[in-house]
Amino acid sequence: MKVDRNGHRPGAGGWQLWSLPGRALALILAVDLLAIGVAVVTATSLTVAGTQWWWFAALVCGSVAHLEIARSIERRREQSSKGVPYTNLKSLWVFAAVLLVPLPLVVVLTAVSYGYCWARVYGPSVAHRKAYSAATFVLASAAASVVLHAGGLDQVPRLPKSAVSLLVIAAAAAIWWLVNYALVVFAIVLSSADASLRRALGDPADQLVVAAALGLGVTVAALLVTMPWALPAPMVAVLAVHRDLLLPQYLRAARTDAKTGLAAATFWTEVVNAELDRARLAGTSVGVIFLDLDRFKRINDTHGHPAGDEAIRAVADTVRGEVRGADLVSRWGGDELAIVLPGLGRAQLHAVAERIRLRLAATPITLTRTKSGTAQVLPGVATSMGLASFPGDGVDADQLVLAADSALLDAKRNGRNQSVSATRR
């Protein structure tokens, strides 16, 4: 019998469902069962008019055609979105269905969409994740239907015919997004001891994809009822959104360190060069901090490398919380981080470095993936830092990196757990 790296046995058919933590397993099973219950209960009173069947068929065809055309992009994105919400445009067709057909047909459309993706887009995948994603769509659609009903839009098609009805539909779309997003985030957080809420929330800008999809869903529904011959126009917009919003998400993932969610070193260097160009034009400063965990090898030797990875992730989260939105934190390599801080001179840079160092020393870190199998708490971690700033310590990225790294070595040689500024040339 095979076991996973946590010592759990996989379920039937190789599913990893049964190896999940108890809280995650309970959430997934509850959501799946609730979605099934919604489908069964609503199907008992199903009545579908002839026109609604045509609308449903058009939505199914549109959804399948969209997925087929964009499947190469979707496959790459799905492979690169581990540990964060996976945004896609399936919600476009599903929300259009919420406005045009009874809820049981919305459930069928969701099943068709995910079933087609299983066969043509995702390929071999973890079954319970896709089943859960489909279930979140069903519950989100049910919640949106309740909002539409409460707003007086009882009969399909539920299209905006006044300012009030438009507000009701907007509220239903917001509820659809909130239910789906919340369920996905909860599942990510509960499924892994390594997951942090901040990472599980993903990039807020990615939610623009969902907003665009829901808005296009309203447009598709309106055109399908009033001018079905004009449907190719929004299809072009759908593919444009897919290419211009979703593919860059994949490109951003390539610039991110997989273990920490920080910027990759190559991307960080690109940003430093861009900030230096701005600073030269504006006559301002650019600060760079290199941060290294003191005696990190002891954590790996005592608790194991998985616990060491947890410690690095915790440090990364703490450092990100101590810098501004304009600053960029990178994992430079191993247990070393690099930070670029535009606009900060030597004195300000030292103040920021000391604040980060003291915060890391005072922030407990819980290690759950230890060699002993029992959780251990580090009272904090000591760090050494090397600081350099433009233009005094270097005029390009290579010079700043060299100056900051030399200052970091000085901090190590001088006793560790301190911030040292580069020696002026």
Task: Tell me about this structure.
With 425 residues, the protein is α+β, with helices and mostly antiparallel strands. The protein folds into two domains: 12-252, no CATH class; 265-421, 2-Layer Sandwich (Alpha-Beta Plaits). Helices cover 61% and strands 9% of the residues. The protein has 15 helices and seven strands. The protein has helices at 22-43, 50-69, 71-79, 90-100, 103-122, 127-150, 163-191, 197-200, 207-226, 232-253, 265-282, 296-303, 305-322, 346-362, 397-413, and strands at 286-293, 328-333, 336-342, 365-367, 376-378, 383-390, 419-421. The strands form two sheets. The chain has a five-stranded mixed β-sheet with strand order 2-3-1-6-7, with helices on both faces. Strands 4-5 form a two-stranded antiparallel sheet. α15 (397-413) links the parallel β6 (383-390) and β7 (419-421). α3 crosses α5 (103-122). The longest helix has 29 residues, at 163-191. It is elongated. It starts with 21 loop residues before the first helix and ends with a strand. It comes from Amycolatopsis samaneae. Residues 284-424 form the GGDEF domain.
